[in-house]
Amino acid sequence: GENVEQHPSTLSVQEGDSAVIKCTYSDSASNYFPWYKQELGKRPQLIIDIRSNVGEKKDQRIAVTLNKTAKHFSLHITETQPEDSAVYFCAAKQGNTPLVFGKGTRLSVIA
Amino acid sequence: SAVISQKPSRDICQRGTSLTIQCQVDSQVTMMFWYRQQPGQSLTLIATANQGSEATYESGFVIDKFPISRPNLTFSTLTVSNMSPEDSSIYLCSVDGGQLANYGYTFGSGTRLTVV
Known about the structure:
The complex is a heterodimer of chains A (about 110) and B (about 120).
Chain A: E1 4-7, E2 10-14, E3 19-25, E4 32-38, E5 45-51, E6 56-59, E7 62-67, E8 72-77, E9 86-92, E10 100-101, E11 105-110
Chain B: E1 4-7, E2 10-13, E3 19-25, E4 32-37, E5 43-49, E6 56-57, E7 68-72, E8 75-80, E9 89-96, E10 105-107, E11 111-115
Parallel strand pairs in B: 2-11
Antiparallel strand pairs in B: 1-3, 3-8, 4-5, 4-9, 5-6, 7-8, 9-10, 9-11
């Protein structure tokens, strides 16, 4: 089955700097890669996703890149703000199989 | 995206008892999933709730401990049976976000279970 590795487990950045979170996956058949943000005590919220026919996707300050050959994908957050502080999860799946999540990255943005 | 109502939001239960968690979706969805999130941890899939057939359980989870019902395309329940303190966790239901397979999941608000 699919296995998703996520790094780093914790990340601290100064407000205004960029943050990068990286994930690798094991199943070359996986073709859908979402990212979730979970604030303390709240449910995970989808923030951006990418499908395997696309190499990069951007939404305002958030971007995701995908390298199918290397089987890794990354989340990039630019101009970080204190409200970006949360736990971020990457995930992967293919077709109707369930999402498999990485272990999460706790991002702290220091004002 | 679908809107999910999950209840209860939290409960404190005695060991040896059972708790049933309900999820109601505002639209018909093909696939519903139940996840467990232990404190400070990631989301671990318990099972896929299938309408009209038995749930599909992941390794390490069994039907006797986590029976699931899926009577229609908008509703599912997860029961945590014969609870022990190790079952203390957050339980989340989720649904596939669209008619096509590759859409992001929407999550219920979660049930925070404490077993004493």
